[in-house]
Amino acid sequence: MTETTHATETEGAAPKLTMRDRHRIMTRESIMAAALEAFGERGYVAVTIDDIVRRAGIGRATFYLHFDSKAAVLRELRNTRMTVWSQQDAPRGGTSGRPSIRAFFEKVVDFYTSAPQLYMALHQARAADPDFAAAHRATMEANVEEWIRNDAMPGATEAQIRLAIAMMYTMVDSFMHLWLVDGWPVEREAAIEAMTDALHATMR
């Protein structure tokens, strides 16, 4: 009987991690931390697998046990470092939806301003890596399906939902680029209000 199936475990409890499991998790986290540091210093395009493994203190073979490319590391960083959004966090349409839209923009703006290296790496990857750009579009397509399924914009057509989602992504990306890349002095509250007003008008 293995450590993860010991008879004294309570039913439904999470399985215990073996030493090998813990080492694997620590190595994976080390790779992601090294990659984020490298992306922040050199930019996504310039960073190589060798840069990442050197910073992480591992060999290339170990890297490829966990990831098949630097794009895969960046996708994992995006998925694990971003706040887990609940259904309640999604912006809602209709005349009373403005508070939910503002709360959404506040959350996403605060996340990216607290993780500027991640934003910049994601922005660069979408511009330089066709596979990463395709994955980003797939995420947007999933948003369209989710908004339709959850009736996020009551009475809206699919075309109207697509427009709202395009505006949402574009506004966030544009303001983040102004703040984090160009250093343009735009006041946070004013920016959130402007994005909220624009998306609310589209989602009514």
Architecture overview:
The protein has 204 residues and is mostly helical. Helix 1 (19-42) crosses helix 2 (49-56), helix 5 (98-114) packs parallel to helix 8 and helix 7 crosses helix 8. It has 2 domains: 14-81, Homeodomain-like (Arc Repressor Mutant, subunit A), CATH 1.10.10.60; 87-203, no CATH class. It is globular and about 55 Å long. The protein has 9 helices and no strands. The protein is 70% helix and 0% strand.
What is the H/E string? HHHHHHHHH
Low-confidence stretches: 1-10
Q: What's the overall geometry? A: globular
Using the CA coordinates, give the radius of gyration: 20 Å
Major sheet size, sense and barrel closure: none
Tell how many strands the DSSP assignment holds.
Answer: 0
How much of the sequence lies in strands comes to: under 5%
Oligomer: single chain
Alpha-beta classification = mainly alpha
The total count of helices amounts to 9
Query: How far is the first residue's CA from the last residue's CA?
Result: 58 Å
Helix content: 55-70%
Taken together, the total number of domains comes to: 2
The overall average pLDDT, rounded, is: 87
Summarize the structure.
By secondary structure, this protein is mainly alpha-helical. Helix content is 70%, strand content 0%. It folds into two domains: 14-81, Arc Repressor Mutant, subunit A (Orthogonal Bundle), CATH 1.10.10.60; 87-203, no CATH class.
How does the SSE layout of this entry go?
Elements: H1 19-42, H2 49-56, H3 60-66, H4 70-81, H5 98-114, H6 116-128, H7 130-149, H8 158-182, H9 188-203
Helix pairs in contact: 1-2, 1-4, 1-6, 4-6, 5-8, 5-9, 6-7, 6-8, 7-8, 8-9
Protein name: TetR/AcrR family transcriptional regulator
DNA-binding region: 48-67
Domain HTH tetR-type: 25-85
